[in-house]
Fold:
Amino acid sequence: MVQMTMAKALGAGLRAAMRDDPRVLLLGEDIGTLGGVFRVTDGLLGEFGAARVIDTPLAESGIVGAAVGLAFRGYRPVVEIQFDGFIYPAFDQIVSQVAKLHYRTRGSVRMPLTIRVPWGGGIGAAEHHSESPEAYFVHTAGLRVVAVSNPADAFVMLRQAIASDDPVVFFEPKRLYQGKGEVELDRPLADARPMGLATVVRAGRDVTLVAYGAMVRTALDAATAADDEGVSLEVIDLRSLSPLDHATVDASVRRTGRLVVVHEAPREAGLAAEVITGVAERCFDALRSAPVRITGHDLPYPPAKTEQHFLPDLDRILDGVDRALGRPNSMTGMAP
Amino acid sequence: MVQMTMAKALGAGLRAAMRDDPRVLLLGEDIGTLGGVFRVTDGLLGEFGAARVIDTPLAESGIVGAAVGLAFRGYRPVVEIQFDGFIYPAFDQIVSQVAKLHYRTRGSVRMPLTIRVPWGGGIGAAEHHSESPEAYFVHTAGLRVVAVSNPADAFVMLRQAIASDDPVVFFEPKRLYQGKGEVELDRPLADARPMGLATVVRAGRDVTLVAYGAMVRTALDAATAADDEGVSLEVIDLRSLSPLDHATVDASVRRTGRLVVVHEAPREAGLAAEVITGVAERCFDALRSAPVRITGHDLPYPPAKTEQHFLPDLDRILDGVDRALGRPNSMTGMAP
Amino acid sequence: MLSPQQTTADPALAGALRMLAPDGTRHPCPELDRWVADVTPEQLRLMHRDMVATRRIDREGVALQRQGELGLWAPAEGQEGVQIGTAHALRRDDFAFVSYREHGVAYARGARIVDFISIWRAEEHSSYNPFDIGVSNPQIIIGAQTLHAVGYAMGIQRDALRAAPGARADQASVAYFGDGASSQGDVHEAMVFAASFAAPVVFVCSNNQWAISEPVALQSRTPIVQRAAGYGIPARRVDGNDPLVCLAAMREALHRARTGGGPGFIEAVTYRIGPHTTSDDPTRYRPAEEVDAWRRRDPITRLEAHLRSMGELSDAQASDVAAFGDRVAAEMRAACLSMGTKAPLAIFDDVYAQPHSGVEREREEYRAYLSGFEDGEVL
Amino acid sequence: MLSPQQTTADPALAGALRMLAPDGTRHPCPELDRWVADVTPEQLRLMHRDMVATRRIDREGVALQRQGELGLWAPAEGQEGVQIGTAHALRRDDFAFVSYREHGVAYARGARIVDFISIWRAEEHSSYNPFDIGVSNPQIIIGAQTLHAVGYAMGIQRDALRAAPGARADQASVAYFGDGASSQGDVHEAMVFAASFAAPVVFVCSNNQWAISEPVALQSRTPIVQRAAGYGIPARRVDGNDPLVCLAAMREALHRARTGGGPGFIEAVTYRIGPHTTSDDPTRYRPAEEVDAWRRRDPITRLEAHLRSMGELSDAQASDVAAFGDRVAAEMRAACLSMGTKAPLAIFDDVYAQPHSGVEREREEYRAYLSGFEDGEVL
Ligand SMILES: Cc1ncc(C[n+]2csc(CCOP(=O)(O)OP(=O)(O)O)c2C)c(N)n1
Ligand SMILES: Cc1ncc(C[n+]2csc(CCOP(=O)(O)OP(=O)(O)O)c2C)c(N)n1
Ligand SMILES: [Mg+2]
Ligand SMILES: [Mg+2]
Structure:
């Protein structure tokens, strides 16, 4: 066990994957000499050379499209999209090619791409640098989508994503990059929790609180705060956004009967709707109160000086918990 | 009142909008001489000339980006994306520019674009020609999204979309293009039902069936069939997908207590999840059974020869209605 | 008299290199002659046969569509020269990324006749295993495949480096695309990447004058070949209805790619004789005379005349080829008429390479749903 | 001796036209001289003053960021020549679409000092009303604005046609972008559209040698200016640190655009003296000597030397300009320090131009939520 930041854990994950498999290579903007704008790939150019750590021209569709061609040739490309908001120029290649090629070719062509996305807000960044586009990819069949919330998962799940024969869109919360945690560098990948499973990160009785990415920490903080008031929250870190680990969520809701789902992304047709609907479909009778969403608003991400009013925080989550528990809350008395 | 196909009604809508306002112009591939691959723009080049009916180079990002520039200059561009599956190359311009420019500029720059999308499956088409990408746009704040289900709405709502000072993604079900219906060509736009409202297209007591686009017809057929079995379905045509007309849906569910939502698009993080979650949030106590989704599967759209197994049809809807009513259905006995 | 390089008075062909005139006469082409100096009559006859087969496949495709047996067909008629000419320059271990119209490339690379059916009958999104014949599945998203070709070429380079440091790739990939596609951002980015990495890829732009109803002048005011210089990519403009010059230009570009010279670009000036697809009605946007003029430049007639002028195609040989074409067409029809539709639950196959709880769940749900039907649909 | 056209031995500047040498000497430039024949010393002094002001704004931006007053700053130092040179060629009724680094363009077009604060302080996504100064809001998505410039130019054409059939546009739009941006598909599509519609738009590529840590050679093996010929767009490569030649090339291109000659392209070879942004550490990827070499080509020093050599800038005038710069910087600092953050509920403003039930609902919910706080946050 070593303590390291998530950025370093991701770098270590890349290094391990590249050492294990010569077909793994990296493509992206500024990932070579600079080591990436978040320094995740720092040192990798030196160790693996320019043939495997590829600074590309400034063109995201080009990066993903070239990675598709490399996958045709048997490589396992790991693409870095510099910031969440710059994934959209590559959207066509991701949705029409990466996601569909295996299906289109009846399994002849595999697309073991990993698309790393520094992701989300809370870092005081400029416009287009705080996007949460995960729902677009969850809605796209043929992709797997994961989101990490701590250095240990970052290290393991990145290697799992790279080892996956399917394309994985890999979301890395930017505001956790410098947060530290324990990482087991030597544990065999085979022993790790499968990438597709959620984790109950805190057991509780009264309300199930589902989160992912940076919101997991906020949810845990909320759980601690709720504890002081005698409310016991069970916090689930989804980890895999597609497929969703229904079993873990359902089991929790069947016990608590109440559900709050948290994410940074805007609410409308976001992932919380999927989690809630799945629960409503499968555990309707277990639900004791209306499920609650605590999410970003349905706005373009606002200027950073106001982002705290966009992002769910501890207080907003606790307000949602109150709602789920039928206790007085900010919406008490509002027309539905 | 005249009878016309939806394709002709849309053409008439464009013609009316262009006659009313010289700032309205059309951009797209093959919309000029050819009149569009679905002939929606047939005759408009002749009437309005090449300065207003613009055959563009083959580049969707270019089309939308140029339309943005035209909007900067005060025009109201109507863009035709040739087929649903070709909107993805324009995704960045739509999501990062069209949707955000008004917000970014604090209202200085308006984006009265209409993006017409021939949409959905059921026409035996090749790959990428049967996509249902609406959820991507519903999840994108700053856009309005509508879907039409009949010639009358097509004629009116297209003009409303063009008249809107906000960008509208306008979905036209391809398989209804040749279907006929009554259209009131002379009714003033001001008298029309607002674009943002849903319509109860069939009143009923037992189950609320929410659909949009081509699925409205299928839902109505299902309602007729259910009637024979003594089950009364209330069918709602959403029409506006963003914003959603919650009031109409809620009022219905409060009466029926049961909800089935239908769409062609894949299920995961699709629009049905949003509709259901909204109802669960607002009308939890009114819901008498688990809400039901009848949707496309979470697959890339399959080859057309098998598309009937992908697309919701009357029988699948009735099966879902049975589920909502707690009657024996295909999932009876399955583990949840 | 036209100079050898100058192909015709038609501005569409301005500056295009040519070896075979429409009447089959061989003209010298100093720029490219050396690349076909070793071509034997036997090789030309093979090209001729593949062109004839391609045309028969194409016509049968149209016929089958008209008869309701296929959902759609994208006719390649008139473009056999560039397709077979360039494909014959490829080696087994090269890899071509094609669009929906490159039937000739797939055929020449060994696609089975049945492979032309399932996709156009909409039974499958594609049929062959691309690694069997070194040809990608036909791409419908305009231009997207050009980036795949570049990435593949980057893989070729990296394979060589892995085999031996400093080693050079000895294979190439090809990106086939149309004049309309040249406007897409992806094609630009492909050229940027190819140039930046000196990737062993050849861009073949089949400029057939039309993108559905849009004339090439709408995409480009200048010959498309001029784009290449902007990236520093060596380029040739050739008469795409002359299979020999297409072979030559392709050999030149492939040789360069295989010897570390980086990418190449070929604009093959040709014409789409048929409609864009069987859904299209070209009479709405182009005059019959234009089509007629291009029919007179037919690539098959041209190669045939050339072979005959050399005494290398006897009447007997010609009728053998025709008979071969008939057999191909018959095989195609038979394959089409006997093709069934896969079982419903097969739509859930191959979404992912590894087990996926979501798809598995949906498959089970749909299985249960189907099993409720009395008529017992086969699962 | 270098020929007038050839600017320097530095390959980065190969083929770039130049009027003012780094020491301020005026060299003839036969290609472009006539476009600046009428330029008066007074005009040059105005350019000089705008350049100085731009630099002071820029340095103050960096300083304010370092002091925690701004979230970020993208330094333009070293690029004042191309920014002010081209901007001074514009007319009030032209319209420029800029990236995040074109502070000089916005300044020269009349942006207020406060306009440089709110966006970089992350109080707003942009500050000025673009129609007030004929400059778009700074674009962060690389290359996206080039298409907007083309669409705007198409609008100019259509306005003219609406005014009188057959009439020609007498305005132009400008697309400013960087060397890195030249790789983006959008920039290609912009050039395709511009050429196809002969739109009155000028592309100005500020090739500052770097895209963050990536050298321009990674984007293009050939001078970026060469791309233009591929589309048939007339182009010039100029020394971007020579404000005079930038003015000249821009006047030429604008004149062409305004008289129906269609688009133009300018590659201005310059250098980003500072980091990419204040978040960047350029010592990781480029040697100090390179920066030093370019400092010796400073555009402000150059224009200053030129004016002085003509006796058109006295010490008194120079110190007036310096004092002006100081005032600008002071004004900027004051604007920054006094800027407040908007009320929380203002984040719900302007999502849509017309009422939207979803946003209204969320605003009400959030208002209710905020009102629950005892500390009474201002709404
Ligand atoms: C991204 C995208 N946009 C639009 C289309 C619709 N479309 C199919 S083929 C075609 C024309 C292509 O022209 P060209 O590249 O010249 O190839 P050709 O059909 O002439 O072989 C168009 C517009 C598409 N398939 N993909
Ligand atoms: C689509 C997109 N991809 C990536 C980025 C991140 N990024 C911001 S600036 C920049 C480099 C741009 O270089 P260049 O075009 O040369 O302009 P310069 O910064 O040198 O002025 C990059 C990669 C972005 N803003 N947008
Ligand atoms: Mg074509
Ligand atoms: Mg640059």
Q: What stands out?
A: The two ends of chain A are 50 Å apart (CA to CA).
